[in-house]
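Our collaborator T.R. sent over the components below with a one-line note: 'Predict the complex.' Nothing else. No constraints on interfaces, no templates requested, no preferences about which chain binds where. So this is a plain run: every listed entity goes in together, and whatever single assembly comes back becomes the starting point for the next discussion.
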Amino acid sequence: MEITSTNQEKTQSNFLKAMFENLKVKLKDMAMKTKKIGEDDPRRILHSIKVGFALTLVSLFYYFRPLYDGFGQAGMWAILTVVVVFEFSVGGTISKSLNRGGATLLAGALGVGAEYLANLCGERGEPIVLGILVFILAAVSTFTRFIPKVKRRYDYGVLIFILTFSLVAVSGARISEIMELAHQRLSTILIGGATCILVSLCIYPVWAGLDLHNLIASNILKLSASLQGFGSEFGNVVSSKDVRDKSYLQIHKSVLNSKATEESLANFAWWEPSHGRFKLNHPWKLYLNVGGIVRQCACLIEILSGCITNSKIQVVSEFEQKIQPSCVKMSMECGKALKEVSTAIKNMSSPPSSVALHLINSKAAADELKNIMENYPSSRNEADLQQIMPMLVVASILIDIIKFVEKIVVSVNELAEKAGFKQAQLLHRGIVKPVNNDDDDQLVIEIGEMKKPIGVGT
Amino acid sequence: MEITSTNQEKTQSNFLKAMFENLKVKLKDMAMKTKKIGEDDPRRILHSIKVGFALTLVSLFYYFRPLYDGFGQAGMWAILTVVVVFEFSVGGTISKSLNRGGATLLAGALGVGAEYLANLCGERGEPIVLGILVFILAAVSTFTRFIPKVKRRYDYGVLIFILTFSLVAVSGARISEIMELAHQRLSTILIGGATCILVSLCIYPVWAGLDLHNLIASNILKLSASLQGFGSEFGNVVSSKDVRDKSYLQIHKSVLNSKATEESLANFAWWEPSHGRFKLNHPWKLYLNVGGIVRQCACLIEILSGCITNSKIQVVSEFEQKIQPSCVKMSMECGKALKEVSTAIKNMSSPPSSVALHLINSKAAADELKNIMENYPSSRNEADLQQIMPMLVVASILIDIIKFVEKIVVSVNELAEKAGFKQAQLLHRGIVKPVNNDDDDQLVIEIGEMKKPIGVGT
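Returned assembly:
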């Protein structure tokens, strides 16, 4: 009897132990993941604290000073506004606050009008007229949310418009003090919205515009890292970091899917006031242009990385040995050009003239490659087409990449001009010898006040 | 004097005329655009009508039967729920309704607890304790919204949780009838949510799941149309429709950017009940798998269309004439395979065995191509590498596309198996001669109960 109970106890304690262990592992795992989210972007932690702060502020304000008819109605709308309106970025918060305020004002006025109209129709006609008006306004407003421009900028406003209009139109039938209600509602929304805007502006502001700016710069840098990675791979140039490190094959992946993020950041940035070196009319749309071309270039790099993953690029034949240096140079120079473009964006200056030099170098390498190809086969014992095919495709894609890098430079130059970036400092004035590892072709180019890359016919 | 006034009148009337004309053109333009939005997807018009209907229903219900303490409080929450919760798809509406209901229940209970705890601390301690509790809960909840899984499924719930908790915790300090308030709030939300769900379910329901299913099928069809367009272009096969029609170069573009849409549809689909031939546990995640591979394939097609736009593919040299039929066949057969896969998805059946035949045909063409390349240059007077380069790159990309088409078929087969699609009808049993235009290679393949494409080493 005793032994059985001891056994039972043992089983039980074992079971509990296992459960505890399991729970411990799960909790630890969750904690690790949560920690990572905070570490990835510490501003997230700050944002959470800011929301808590704004909400506590408004709550306590209404707790101590119940406005108008007790806390219920008025304070509720202030709390509601803070919870719904406070977004991660300043632009998001301002956009939602203004949308909410404007829509409430407009819908309130229309609601009063509807109420007045319905009153004219007598007691029997009133609900019918109100019903019809609510139906028409809700249906039409909902439809406008499908119009891209409205959806992009005023989606939340339309929602609040429908909401407020219905509330005012229908509630008006019971309470006659619509005007006071409207005053109350607007003042609470104002307090809630102003609290959000002030907190998000004054305590470590997160600017959607700056985020967009940095995102574009870092996306270009990622392409640069990929291209330089390919360059090392082709040339077997083993630098200190890149020893058998294939991570560069993955860097560009996130660029492929950044369209939605870029667009929402650009939408929010439109609402932001002048901050830092960004003026009120900063050309945010041009960032989307640059982003689009960067994504097309990332598409090419995706194919390139596919070529490298699928078929080990071998430099065996005489022909491959001949074109290898050109391939290395093309990807390295393109990578360098993009890196400088990215740095220029980061520093808010227009791309330096050395970018044009890198482009010229990469184009020289492309021409070299074309020369070699024209003379193929130079001898009878060269490898067949089937064998050199992977290398040829890589070379062709690299030539295409040069074109896209040029497009990126042109679009960034346009952006720099429109946004008033500071002029790039000319590193060298007068005669400049391009950075060139080969001694046999010494391109000598005169650089004056060159701003745009030198267009070279493809 | 008279003449001057007549002149003035004339100028005025001219000005008014011009203004009217201008307004007329603008209004016409706007009407055209709006009409197009409705025509693109007539369900949008239906959705707008449904929202208006649900809102009118709830408004009038509360207009005629003011529950509890007059219209103000209770009816307001029902209207608010309808406006905020009614989404385009059934899944979206259910997701938001359940999130709202669940979060309100949970936050209400916690709010009562917080209120009880604060009461214990005396009149002076109460606001401090409440303030601290609101701060902590708001900050922690806001942070959880950054966790991807929470963001995907419960973002709206967390928002409502913060809102309700703050309201209950702070308002409780004034009103003692929290329990009644909670009952009232929940019942109104229930009525609002139920109205939305019923209206969106019963009147021409828009299923996010079905939309996702059709989107994947139509994306695959788009790739197929692109590939068949390329095939015609390469082969100069002028069909009745394709005369100088370059629109096929654009078809695949929308596929490249469909990731965000697919993901949001899959999220909503998860909430939908069993509908049509979609069961409750339909493997929606697998659609995202297929979608990802389809997008990679679209990336290749983007490069291919770039090749064709940039450099006119010329079939001049002997070599190019040799590889041209293979290229035509590869893209045509891949296009046909994708078309059949798309049709199979549309009909909810697993891809038919003829898909495997098309794959075999396209691989045979690829092998043929490799043969030709191995023997290059077969004669001395052939074009140089530089000249045949565009055609070579096209050929190489087409070979890559075959691999992706195979991957698409495999992933669709997996989907068909997990989702319980009906078995494809075998068109031919026994010995089958593949569709093959060339007479010189008669592949004869025995097809039994083949479901997966025949794996051929690359």
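Summary for T.R.: Chain B is about 75% helix and 0% strand.
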